[in-house]
Structure formats: structure tokens, C-alpha cells
Amino acid sequence: MELLKNKVLQEGKVLSGKVLKVDSFLNHQMDPVLMKEVGREFTRRFDGERITKVLTIESSGIAPGIMTALELNVPMIFARKQKSLTLREDIFVEKVFSFTKQETNEITVSRKFIQPGERVLIVDDFLANGEAAFGLARIVEQAGAEVAGIGIVIEKAFQPGRRVLKEAGYRVESLVRIGSLEDGQVTFAEDGE
Amino acid sequence: MELLKNKVLQEGKVLSGKVLKVDSFLNHQMDPVLMKEVGREFTRRFDGERITKVLTIESSGIAPGIMTALELNVPMIFARKQKSLTLREDIFVEKVFSFTKQETNEITVSRKFIQPGERVLIVDDFLANGEAAFGLARIVEQAGAEVAGIGIVIEKAFQPGRRVLKEAGYRVESLVRIGSLEDGQVTFAEDGE
């Protein structure tokens, strides 16, 4: 997605060989026109997948998630992150480890919002190790629903997230794939597999 | 806003005399078409205010915030909530007390995203005691910018938020005003003052 590549080149800040800061348009300040285009592009890529719901995770997934849900004309759910939790029967819970923050969070979704047989599109802002996307996928499957696909705004292709998710059988579509952040430079990876 | 009133009546759950649960369309699952209408309505109400930026707070403010920013064609920022924080020079910080959760959070915004002279529209999902909106307003003023107005999706008019914000000189526009949640029933308050 050219618009997004240009934004990454113009405004992304390479903080290390692994960390790209995009807080001017995706993670803190958000560009609503870009988010709308992100929603359109996911809708185009997952055309024909009969999606009934979009699932994302707070907080940075919500804007691309709601724009995708608007284009698809289906509801969106955002999973909540919590440090720890009293067990409750009315929610799905999965543990998700964050390599960046070196901590485990519990992510939760109310059982009433995902029904058996639904086809759920998972949307997230970043893909690195795939832990968050995997946690969301496990929640969809706990509900007896199907993962229609995983839509990622920015993939760090030099980390194992895509491989791990594909090996588990999920279709992953990333709008921008970063091949490397070495020497303070963003290099894009080829699209696709 | 009739569409929103109907949604509150059909799907809102009164949990107590003070708590209305709207997790099927605003706080957990979100209705994107409704959020788009919310954005349009705020844009209509704040027409002529020369707004340069929308400011909201994670997580439930993000969807109404981004839709409003899209209609206004300006960037959106979401403030982050944290339990406690090491002081940093590059961020604005305000303390916000939550009566619901009986805890104080620090809310933060990067200094680089609000410039002196900007006109900022604050958007949030709920107004009760006004603590969050006030914290966001203080951040705007720390930046040397102006609060163009405060747009609230659902106001609990039986709590003091609106009065407190108006006494401080802010313009408050709520799309739905709840007058009472007594006896498990939603009663709407009149629009306006």
C-alpha cells in the first residue's frame, strides 16, 4: 500500500534494529484519512471471505479496526488487556506475552459477542512475533467461530510472526512489510509469502 | 440524537442507579455505522469552531474520536492512561481520578502533537463527574492551545460533570443525556443547559 509506505518513510522513526516508532499517524496521533484507506484495503483483500465481525485489541488496533468494520458493514469488538484477572464465566481469556514489554497480559472478550459459526477478521496495527494475533485467534476458536484472516497494518517481516501464523493455517495480509531496520534505515520486504 | 437514544433503550443495561452498560455498541463491541453518525453529529454541532485536532482518551474514546476527526479532516490524538510514570520532559501529564474504579491514573500526551494556538475538540464516550474531560482540557491548556469544545457521546446528567465543565468555561455537547437510571429504567434528560 503506497500511501502507507510513504507515511512510514516520511514520519517513521527507527529507534533500533527492531523498533519503528510511528506515533505521528498510527500509535498515538492518528491520521483518519489513512485509517479509512487502511479499512478499504483490508476490505478489498478479504473480499469474498464472508466476514461477520472484526476483532482487534486495545488501543492502537481500534482505529484501523473500526474503519475496516465500517467498510465491511459488520460490528467490531476490541479485546481488553489486563495485568491479571479474577476468572469469570462470561468472558474468553487468553494469555499474551509481549516481547517488547517483557510482560504477560491477559486479553479478554465477552462470550456474548462471538457466536459459533461466525467468520472473524482479526485486525492489528503491528505484527512482530505474532503473540497478540495468536491470542485473538485462540479466542475466536474458543468461541467455536472461524478466523477468516489476519489483517496487519505494519509487519516486521524480520521477526517470526507471519511464519508462525501461516504454519498454524491462518491467512495473513500485511499492508506494509518492513524487511529491515538496520543502520537506522527502513527497508521494505517484498509483498506476499 | 435519536439513533443513539434508540440504541441506548434497546441495548443499554442498567446495572445500578449510576451505571449504564453499553458494551454492545460503544465500550467493547462497537457499531461502526453509529460511530460514523456520531462523528457527523459532532462535526455539525461544532461547525465554525475552526478545530485543528481531536483529542480523546483510550480505549472507548478512540472510535468516536477517529470518526469525528475523519469528518473534520484533522488528526486525532488519544491520551494514554497509566498507573504511574517516570517523569519525562517530552510529554504532558495530568492526574485523573476515576470515581467508578476509585483509582487515580496519569494521562499522557506527547508534547509534539499539540502546538500553541491549536483549537482542540475533546471527544469522550461518557461524561459523569468530568474528571477525564477536565484532565484532557488541562493538557490542551498546558500546550498553550485552546479547547474548542467537549463532545460527549453519553452524558449522565444526574452527575456533576457538565456543571463543573461549564463553570470552567467549556462548551459541552452531549449526544444523549441520561436524566436518571432509577428503578432499572433509562430516562432521558432534556437537551441543552
Could you walk me through the main structural features you see in this protein, from its secondary elements to its overall organization?
The structure is a homodimer of 193-residue chains. Chain A is of the alpha/beta class and 193 residues long. The first copy, chain A, has a single domain, classed as Rossmann fold, CATH 3.40.50.2020. Helices cover 28% and strands 34% of the residues of chain A. The first copy, chain A, contains five helices and eleven strands, in the order αβββαβαββββαβαββ. In chain A, the strands form two sheets. Chain A has an eight-stranded mixed beta sheet with strand order 6-7-5-4-8-9-10-11, with helices on both faces. A two-stranded antiparallel ribbon of chain A has the order 1-2. The longest helix of chain A is centred in the N-terminal third of the chain and has 14 residues. The two termini of chain A are 16 Å apart. Strand 5 of chain A pairs antiparallel with strand 3 of chain B, so a sheet runs across the interface.
List keywords for this structure.
homodimer, 193 residues, alpha/beta, Rossmann fold, two-stranded antiparallel ribbon, 34% strand, globular, Xanthine_PRibTrfase (chains A, B), Xanthine phosphoribosyltransferase (chains A, B), glycosyltransferase (chains A, B), Pur/Pyrimidine_PRTase (chains A, B), cytoplasm (chains A, B)
